[in-house]
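User: Second chain of the day. Same drill as before.
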Amino acid sequence: MTNIILSDDHNVVRQGIKALLATEPDMKVVAEAADALSTIKLVRQHKPDILVLDLMLGGMDGIDIVKQVIDCSPKTSVVILSMHSNEAYIVKALKAGAMAYVLKECTAEELVTAVRQAVSGKRYLSSTLSELAIKAYVETGKEGIHESYDTLTQREREILHMVAQGNTNSDIAERLSISRRTVEVHRANMMKKLGLKSHADLIRYALQHNII
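Assistant: Same format as last time:
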């Protein structure tokens, strides 16, 4: 039996995937998560064979979730289910350790195939993604558009995501239980690393890089 954890912040998406996988006699959804911290906690608890993960969860960058999941449960294969088809971002997920990357527009059969391939230790990409392009990125070592993003600390990434979602410095300070001044310092450092000059630049960066 293949034990699976579903991680997506939309309940209707999780229920749809769960119903789909329930039709497979050798697959069982053992837990569901709606945010990053719950995902990692449940993976530690259940050590599933598969984690079906939406990269755009609140509270943590999706690539970091992949890395932490693999660190705490090396035998868990991560299947990314995302609406984003940016090749550079897909490469980041694969380099982080994800075994499969499928788009939310994929067919039910394709998701099941991705799970089976990942369980068997084989990489799988949605048929709509370019295998040749992905291979080229990996072989040449290109980091693509997320190169500067890699220089950010975890806190700076959290603040980037929160600002992109429309939160003010005061909102962020309250949610993270830190001072507004600390938020301002992290935000300034993050803007400098990314080469951004204004709030408009930050929003543009977030849109271009599929952060929002």
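DSSP finds ten helices and six strands in the chain.

User: Great, on to the next one.
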